[in-house]
Write a structure and sequence with these properties.
It contains 23 helices and 13 strands. The protein is an alpha+beta fold. A 5-stranded mixed beta sheet has the order 6-7-8-10-9. Strands 1-13 form a two-stranded parallel sheet. A two-stranded antiparallel sheet has the order 2-3. The structure holds zinc ion (ZN).
């Protein structure tokens, strides 16, 4: 067992007391044990200190960052309530040390990077709908329920006294916490130096109370001059494995990196041309996303809630609201310090195990950064609405929408890199760097498991590439890229995904996921090799005011 510092909750202290605890003491409290197979999972995360230089910020701006961290902590607690249908405090105080830490990283007793398998005794499978829906609700019951806002991004499903399904808006279900968060954002707004940022914070504060997030999403799109940013509220729908409707509370507190942002700004002007060049029939690329596409680099200083659960996001593309996207475009935020952590601690060691020695020099941070950046750009391309009156792609593809959207962004990101490299816009390195680093990244992401949209998307792509001969595996279990075949596979997979999305072809996607969204025994063996070599699956952040010196 690795040594960890941890603080014991009072309840655990009683149990741990120097005198032998009486058996009766234990009876009153539920005690959870680590399931045997989970022992080897405890060190899959490697710690990383999340910090950055704040010296260019005024005292008011530093105070504002502190307040944003306070509000983020509220989001963290709200996410616990959405993810885990029990009591957070009693769960955490029933376990200790590494197990407690692992429980906290997972926001519950289910291993997020192992298909949500329970790792504590006494827990069943995680409900598909997390705690957004009653655990005993069937899909048929949901579909038959005559409730106007049942598929809202911002409601919970609950039962009334007659056991009938009802909807409860987040603003009511979490009223006390959201009121506190709202007050903190208003206080932060008064300190903001950027008026556009202050406006966003005030509208976000209002959204917590009104349950209407669109005005604040619009305001977030209008900011350009702020050094500090915060992504906060109910945002991503990945936690809802039942329908992909419900959004999870999260937060990122971010400090803009101006030098890198300038470097990124020049790519935005190529977006219309890239959309036009997508390898698919014209009808599937007819939408023109807003030209107001901002691309910026940040150092993250705080992750909370969904963004801090399990694997950590290294780039963000928001807002998700399709109406805002069509009117204003999206913003892509590259989280540079988080990216560097993953490159150094995970990607390079993976390449040393699984990529043939002669291609390892093609693994570069520059390529990793570019691939990740263009993944985010690619979310803004393609199509948001189906071509055949099935509504938005997201609603037509339901629980498969996220995995397919992530798969689209990955593959179209590489497509764009290829285009821009050949036009001389991307000038660094060789095209082989981007392809080889992309391949190594698939191994990194497949380790996130099938319960994550990103993990599933990577499994589909790995198996698709294998079928198309995009790589060869030698007898040592090392992979070599075939540039020509990988390029052909990239084009045909792009076309396939864009077509499935445009057609809103739920059954087609379900089949793709069922046939290709799986880990073959050979891949499993290769991934086990990474675990045996002690390569962490992901990072966990040591973060907060103290780390930042606030
Ligand atoms: Zn993505």
């Amino acid at each position: 067992m690795k040594k960890t510092l941890f603080s014991l909750a009072p309840l655990a202290l009683i149990l741990m007391g120097c005198s032998e605890p009486e058996p009766t003491d234990k009876k009153s409290i539920e005690n959870y044990e680590l399931v045997a197979e989970a022992e080897q999972r405890l060190d899959i995360y490697t710690p990383y200190q999340l910090k950055t230089d704040l010296s260019h910020l005024s005292d008011d701006q530093k105070k504002m960052v502190s307040l944003l961290i306070d509000a983020s902590e509220i989001m963290d607690n709200l996410f616990w309530q959405q993810a885990f249908p029990g009591n957070k405090e009693s769960l955490l105080s029933s376990v200790e040390g590494d197990v407690r830490e692992f429980t906290a990283i997972n926001y519950g007793p289910w291993d997020r990077l192992n298909n949500n398998k329970p790792f504590l005794t006494g827990f069943e499978e995680k409900p598909e709908g997390a705690n957004f829906y009653p655990a005993d609700m069937s899909k048929t019951e949901f579909e038959n329920a005559d409730l106007a806002d049942k598929d809202s991004l911002y409601t919970l499903l609950r039962r009334d006294e007659q056991d009938e399904l009802i909807t409860v808006p987040y603003s009511e279900a979490f009223k006390d916490s959201l009121t506190r968060a709202s007050d903190i954002l208003l206080e932060a707004a008064d300190l903001a130096e950027s008026q556009a940022f202050a406006k966003y914070l005030r509208l976000r504060a209002e959204a917590f109370l009104s349950n209407e997030y669109q005005p604040s999403d619009m305001a977030w799109m209008e900011m350009t001059d702020n050094d500090v940013d915060v992504v906060i509220g109910p945002i991503e729908n990945y936690e809802d494995h039942l329908y992909g409707y419900k959004t999870a509370f999260e937060s990122y507190v971010l400090i803009k990196d101006k030098a890198w942002s300038e470097r990124l700004a020049k790519y935005a002007e190529y977006l219309p041309q890239l959309q036009e060049g997508l390898p698919v029939e014209p009808a599937y690329k007819a939408e023109m996303p807003g030209a107001n596409a901002q691309l910026n680099a940040y150092d993250a200083v705080y992750y909370a809630g969904h963004s801090n659960a399990g694997s950590k996001t290294i780039a963000i593309n928001l807002p998700n609201d399709e109406e805002v996207q069509l009117e204003k475009g999206t913003r892509r935020l590259q989280l540079k310090n988080a990216m560097q952590a993953k490159f150094d601690k995970i990607l390079v060691p993976i390449a040393e195990q699984l990529i043939v020695p002669e291609q390892r020099e093609n693994i570069t941070f520059n390529a990793f950064f570019a691939n990740t950046m263009f993944h985010e750009v690619a979310h803004g391309l393609g199509i948001k609405n189906t071509l055949n009156d099935k509504g938005t792609v997201r609603s037509a593809l339901k629980e498969h929408a996220s995995a397919l959207e992530e798969g689209k962004a990955d593959i179209l990101g590489l497509y764009m890199v290829t285009q821009l490299f050949e036009q001389g816009v991307l000038a660094e390195g060789e095209l082989e760097d981007y392809y080889t680093t992309f391949m190594a990244s698939i191994f990194r992401s497949v380790r996130f498991g099938a319960s994550s949209a990103h993990g599933k998307a990577n499994m589909i792509r790995f198996n698709y590439f294998a079928d198309e001969g995009a790589f060869k595996r030698n007898e040592k279990g090392q992979y070599a890229i075939d540039m020509d075949k990988m390029r052909a596979a990239m084009n045909s997979l792009s076309e396939k995904i864009l077509t499935l999305q445009g057609d809103g072809d739920y059954n087609g996607v379900a089949e793709l996921v069922a046939t290709l969204g799986v880990v073959s025994p050979q891949l499993k063996a290769d991934l086990d090799k990474l675990a045996d070599a002690g390569i962490p699956v992901d990072v966990t952040f040591k973060q907060g005011k103290e780390v930042l010196g606030l």
